Amino acid sequence: MTTMAASNDERFRKTVAAILGMSPTDVTDALTPDDVDTWDSLNHINLMSALEQEFGVLFNAAKLGEVQSVGRLRAALTEHGVAL
Amino acid sequence: MNLNDPGVSALTPREVAQTLAALEGDPTVVALAQAARTLLPQVAALGAKPLRVACLASYTADPIRTALQLQGLRAGLAIETHFTPFGQSLQALIDPASSLATFKPDVIILAERLKDGCPAIYDAFNSLAPAEANRLADDWLAGIGSALKSYRQRSDARILIQGCEQPGWAAMGIADRTSGHSQAALIMRVNDELTKIAADIGNAHVMDYDSLIAWHGRRQWTDRRLALLARMPIAPARLWALAGFYIRHIRPLAGLTKKVLVLDADNTLWGGVVGDVGIEGIELGPDHPGSAYVAFQRRVLDLYQRGVVLCIASKNEPGIVEDVLARHPNMVLKTAHFANIKANWSPKPDNLRQMSQELNLGLDSFVFLDDSPVECELMRASLPEVTTVQLGEDSSNHAAVVESLDCFEQWTLTEEDRQRGVMYVADAGRRMAAAAAVDMPSFYRSLDMRLSIAVDDAMQTARVAQLTQRTNQFNMHAIRCTDADIRKYQESPDCHVLTARLVDRFGDNGIIGAAVVERSGVDWVSQIFLMSCRVLGRTVEQSFLKWIARFAREAGAARLICLFKPTPKNQPFSGFYRDSGMRLADNGEDVQRWEWDLSRADLDLPIWITIDAAVMPK
Question: Whole-prediction pTM value?
């Protein structure tokens, strides 16, 4: 279970990093759109879609707009049963 | 190559080809973002052709930007985009001072959804009386028609109109078509009307958007959440497909339509290895698994009939592939469909290089299709300019791979396209005659060439435009024209549009040359002079040029001026005008000006070509 969580964490960081154009090691829970200039409204949609594709989940419409930090992205995935 | 490193170094053409092939194979949102970061900053260095594309939509269209640029790069285009804010398409078209007008696009994509313009037709159809529904649609069409007409007065841009989509389920349910007031029929009528608008404004085309959606699945096409939240009806996972659909329609404009399809044989044309199982043992016939290969061959035959030149590159003992073509009763593709067959043990890239020389067609117009990942990888590594497509393991998908090839598209099909395959096969006979002849004049005489020149023949407009788009090598001024551009030349009292058709003892080569000359006082200036590479080296090009010079002289011209614009592709012909006896009058940075004093020029025509001419009245 621990290794599984670690690999999910890696996938999560890699996905976020790929969309925002940063290194996976710089992906911290505290990051918000205010901290990353590539995190605009369009890339926010890309971010959500990329996580949906990566983890095979579907966020509900209300979630799509409201999760505005890496920590909350992580929480949204956990709610869908992804062990992070 | 670390895709996550923002400071990536320059990629080799091989790496670019690999990245784009991987993206086409699995265009996830992450793969798109990564490819955009690595490739897009280098577009200029990759030698892609610049093209300005404006997107006008009734919804948020800009999420497609990177996908469009990457699909463009895949086709060889460096696309600069402009997006008008959603819902302002018609104003942008009408206003001569709009940001669209300032952008000066080469191509406009007009993605106005009937669903946005007339929501009732989609969301409240059962509340509409038939007359009301029709009136709504007609008003919407009239708005689009008049905005496009107004824009057309100020721009020659190619206009691509996105057709209307059908609803998931008709409002009347399964009774839609029998109800006497059909939603589906109304939407089809709107698409027909759009086609009429396109014909009316010229240099415009309606894209069959509904078929694209159907191909990818209507249910997956729209992300309802994003449609509501961000006015972005197209699911992010489908943007790559939509961008590819747009580029499919843009390719012909930039001369980027592919011409040759090279097929592997074993496990591509048929199942099994013929060298092992023999001609009787291969899978090819009406029942599975042979039926998958028959289906595949039928789709390839469609391409042949659209003018794609077919070849085979197979690792086999010489003769065995030819034997299957000639003898197997279930082959859809026959010997006569192939312009060039290389069945041997040489590396396939070597074989493609040789085909390119023999067919006189650039390798960048080649598509290579093989089931072997090793062969595909070798081809991408050795010849990145060739478009390499790998067939999957499951042969039942092979036909679909051919169906979805997007690189052979042309806006119109001419008689030459339908006959091209036959012409290339006849070329093989001509090569043998050349090998047998003792000297060039006797080879030329042996061909029995007849050149038919037509001046201002309106029937040839589409073919002339197409030649300007397809001809990359012997294309002296290298300007690309649309049908409308050629029509303008034809209608101008100061211009002549000439075409040359060549027939020889091996068959009809079709219209292989075109020229446009413009009168300017005592000078005649050739704006376009080009010839299909298939017929070069038989003095046809010199004969056509001299005939034009004689025609000009008879009409009272003192000089013939020919323009040459050097491009990477027409370099081999940079000496053509000099060798013909012309004088370089101006060696401009962009364009050279070659002159002929018609009172003194040697305009004798070769004795081995019979020339006839038809001059249509202006």
Answer: 0.79
